[in-house]
Amino acid sequence: MPQVDRHKNRNVYIEFIANEDFVNLPYKERLTITFITSGSMNLQLNDRSIKIAAPSILCLSTNDQIQVLEKCNVASQSFCFHPDFFNTAHFSESNDYLSTNLKIKRGLSLFKKDNINTGVYAAIEKVYPKLYEWFFIMGTEVYAQSDSLWVCRVKKYLIQIFGLLEELNHHSGKLPVNLALEYIHINYSDKITLEDLTRYVHLNRVSLNKMFQDSCGSTVMGYLLSYRLKVAESLLTHTDMSLNEIARATGFEYDTYFIKQFTAKIGMTPTKFRIASREFGNCH
């Protein structure tokens, strides 16, 4: 059943299941992200045998077929949503969803299954606290609906969760550059210094920047700024969060500094970008 937004006259086609029992998965007309926080299980997923050990994330599309063969002390929560919730910036007060050509690519690869990707992503020890925090707050927002912007905050956490999982899936390994990328993708919403990164990868700043320049085409702090702005672009396009909220969510201490950096790098102010992206349906 969709959520009835008590602040606005609309239905919001999302659900949060605090105790997932795997009986009804996948949910009809929904994409589902399930966070397994303890235990283990054996599944038959699309005729493929899969073993999942907590902590892990399971991403299911509407056409996936899943059968639980064995469960052992499993605790898990699910967030499921209509695809339009992720792809559409606005709601119509009378017709629920306002059709637009806005499409967000962030995170969609997580739901695609092939010979390599199973839709199961291990929540490594370093990333588990951040995923747990974001997932918990997202569920709380669904139940509490604390103010009129609760839907925007749910979208924010969903975008951040998907971005984190996608980046970690693309950049795995123990090379110093991959370790630095891992640290950035996990902690970009917090304050990060160059010293934090050099300590994390056990390199001096000159060596780290040289490796980063060769691999990513920028210094490590330049990449951090670009990644923060990349997340900010999605939040500007797909939520009505204030500039101050977006600045804080992406690791900028002050919205004035965020506006200055965004304008310098993107070529327009965040407000103008928000208007343009919604008008022309830019993808992020």
TrEMBL record:
Keywords in alphabetical order: DNA-binding, Transcription, Transcription regulation
InterPro entries attached to this UniProt entry: Homeodomain-like_sf, HTH_AraC, HTH_AraC-typ_CS
PROSITE patterns: HTH_ARAC_FAMILY_1, HTH_ARAC_FAMILY_2
SMART domains with a match to the protein in the record: HTH_ARAC
GO MF annotation list: DNA-binding transcription factor activity; sequence-specific DNA binding
Pfam families recorded: HTH_18 (PF12833)
Record-annotated HTH araC/xylS-type domain positions: 178-276
Protein name: Transcriptional regulator, AraC family
Species for this entry: Clostridium saccharoperbutylacetonicum N1-4(HMT)
Lineage, highest ranks first: Bacteria, Bacillati, Bacillota, Clostridia, Eubacteriales
